[in-house]
Design brief:
heterodimer; A: alpha+beta; 2 domains; 3-stranded antiparallel sheet; B: 5 helices; globular
Chain lengths: 258, 88
């Protein structure tokens, strides 16, 4: 497991804690709005104790099982404790209008604090970096290439192809030894370049479509990748899908010389 | 060279082939080799177009001169076509 993977795992786990934090805040907010649930003192006490314990355990287990990053995330730990403590107000809030008013003021003050926004931005950035919102959220919008940025197409067929590539579909690179990029190729096709009509669909100069090698492989899981519709050679309108990824993300499975 | 608007990849490749001839006729073998290399990059039309654009950008003055009175316009059309193909 490399440092990048560990970092991503930590971000993922940290975001889980953020979700818990926001969930508890939402519960508090909803309770303040509703103010109809009467919670007995004994239950409030039990809830306070259980919530604090659960949230602390969750934080320690999910974000720092080895205690490696406690110092770095002490503030977050404090936040968790604060939320756990805040959970204890649930019972009182439901029955005490004065407590509700104070809690509203406290919540408003917290939301007005620039640090709150900074934390939220950090949390969202971390979530995106960790792929917390699913594969589509981690899909890069653009990929830098030696020829400028390649931008993800919004065409349905391109988006469908993107999903296929991200799920390990076979991608191809054909070329001429001595002229074409091989292992570090960023530009990949979703069909074999030796297929009839390939040059027209993928916009290859017909005189240069006699490839003498074909590589097959996959885009490395988690690597940034975009897909675009290739410009065809008239009268062929194109329409074939190309994938563009980062250098080194093409995992080669086979090398074939026809 | 005769003026022709750039509307497709075929137009670009035709222009490049004519430009290569002009390069060799004017003692610009290196530029012709660069264009040849771009055209032979492999199985990606995007990659080929991108490489052609790069050659055009890096040798813009020379290429515009070689393309004649409409050189600037056509050079710009090539770059714009490739930018559109890349989604920019």
């Amino acid at each position: 497991m490399n440092a990048k993977t560990i970092e991503m795992m930590m971000l993922n786990r940290k975001m889980l804690v953020w979700k818990v934090i926001w969930s508890v805040w939402l519960i508090i907010f909803a309770t303040m709005q509703a103010t109809v649930v009467a919670v007995p003192c004994s239950m409030t006490s039990a809830f306070r104790s259980a919530a604090a314990s659960e949230l602390q355990t969750l934080y320690q287990f999910e974000t720092d099982p080895l205690g490696l990053v406690s110092d770095q995330y002490q503030n977050l730990l404090n936040d968790v404790q604060a939320v756990a403590n805040a959970g204890a107000y649930l019972g009182r809030l439901s029955a005490d209008p004065c407590e509700q008013q104070r809690a509203r003021a406290a919540l408003l003050a917290a939301l007005m604090n620039p640090n709150t926004y900074a934390d939220a931005v950090f949390g969202i950035d971390s979530a995106l970096a960790a792929g917390f919102f699913g594969p589509e959220a981690t899909a890069a919008e653009t990929i830098a290439t030696p020829y400028g940025a390649a931008v993800q197409s919004s065409a349905p067929e391109a988006l469908s192809a993107l999903e296929q590539v991200q799920n390990g579909a076979t991608v191809y690179k054909g070329g001429v030894l001595g002229s074409s990029v091989t292992g570090d190729s960023q530009f990949l096709a979703l069909e074999n370049p030796l297929n009839p009509g390939y040059a027209g669909r993928y916009g290859i100069p017909p005189q240069n479509a006699n490839f003498n090698f074909v590589l097959t492989g996959q885009v490395q899981p988690g690597a940034s990748v975009i897909t675009r519709v290739a410009p065809g050679i008239p009268p062929n309108p194109g329409g074939a899908i190309e994938a563009v990824t980062t250098p080194g993300a093409f995992q080669i499975n086979s090398f074939h010389m026809p | 060279m005769n003026a022709q608007n750039i509307n497709s990849t075929a137009d670009i490749y035709d222009l490049v082939e004519k430009l290569k001839i002009e390069c060799r006729n004017n003692g610009l073998g290196d530029l012709a080799t660069q264009l040849d290399g771009a055209m032979s990059l492999g199985s990606s039309g995007l990659e080929i177009l991108g490489a052609i654009r790069k050659v055009f950008v890096e040798n813009r003055t020379t290429i515009e001169h070689l393309l004649g009175p409409t050189g600037r316009e056509r050079s710009g059309q090539v770059i714009a076509f490739v930018d559109k193909a890349f989604g920019r």
